Structures are given as structure tokens and as C-alpha cells.
Amino acid sequence: MGILGMTVAYLLFSVLHFIQFVLAITVCGLYGIDLQRARSQGKYSDGKWVYAEVVGGLSALTAVLYLVPFILRFAAVTIWSFILFALWIALFGLFGSMYIHEDPEGNSDIQRMKNAVWVDLANALLWLIGFVASAAYWWSHRDRRSRFTGRASLGRNASTRSTGWTA
Fold it and tell me: Most CB within 10 Å of its CB: which of 31, 39, 90, 121?
């Protein structure tokens, strides 16, 4: 049972996607500071920071779309969640190699980027959790059909094995 007719699974997915949205927007803000500074000074916008903004934007948009209840029933949700997980891991690796071992020495910009790296990792882990959870949800709620003709719809607990005739 859920609140106002919503299932517990949907409520848990909603909490997960809300947190993913908040962290994606946070990443956009953390990396956007450097992009805005480069733009205002007329300097080159590094592709690494643009990549971070694109991944953050795609994740924020996806998290908002996943709040629509019927979208979670599609198998593409699981695949797209895994792709976003891979993008976040690549982002973590990219900026982690640049900033994890860096000593900020009072430089707030380097400290901000060190913090951004850990937010990237948190995002990656949340998308991994979302991938596993959506795969489990899809597997348990898939539409099952009979083995030979595919016309009969089987229940959630029905077997696809034939048991033979009993008269």
C-alpha cells in the first residue's frame, strides 16, 4: 500500500530520482562557475568542463522524466540508467585524476573541484543503484506470455512450463 494510491516502489524511486536531480544540478553549478569565469574573461572553455555540464544536464533531465510513473515500465530506462552510470564514472575518473591528490593550500577553487569530484562519485553510485533497482523492477513486472503461441498472458507467479494433460 502507498500514499494516495502510489506504491512503495514508486515512492522509493521518486526519492532516488529527486536526490539524483539535486546532485546533478549541484554538479552543473560547481563546474559552471569555471565555465562562466572562462566565458567572461574571453578564454577557451575546456571540453572537460563542458562534458561535466552535459552529463549533469542529461542526468537532471532524466531524473525529472523518471518521476513520471509509467516511464519506469520500459526496458530502455534500465539501459539509459546504465549509460548515465558509465558517464558519471568517466567524469569521476577524469576529474579525480586531476584533483584528488591535489593540495588546495588555501585555494578555494581547487577545494571546490575536490568536492565536485566526490559529488561526481555520489552521482555515479546513485545511478548504479537506479540501474540495479530499475532492472529488478522491470524483471519483476515484465509482461509474460505463454511459451508456444505467445497469446496467453501469464500472471506474475505463473510458470511457462507445460505440465501436461489432466482429464
Answer: 31
pLDDT in tens, 5-15: 567 888 899 99
The model's pTM: 0.79
Separation of alpha carbons 32 and 141, rounded Å: 40
Q: Which long-range contacts (CB under 8 A, 24 or more apart) does 137-143 make?
A: 137/9, 137/13, 137/72, 138/72, 138/73, 138/74, 138/75, 138/77, 138/78, 141/73
Whole-number Å distance between alpha carbons of 144 and 29 = 44
Which distant-in-sequence residues (6+ apart) come within 8 Å of 135 by Cβ?
A: 78
CB contact at 8 A, 60 and 31: no
Instruction: Kindly state the DSSP code that residue 100 receives in the 8-state scheme.
Output: T
Q: Name the band, by pLDDT with cuts 50, 70 and 90, for residue 126.
A: very high
Closest CA to 20 of 81, 91, 97: 81
* Long-range contacts of 32-38, Cβ-Cβ distance < 8 Å, separation of 24 or more: 33/112, 34/109, 34/113
Cell readout for 95 is: 576529474
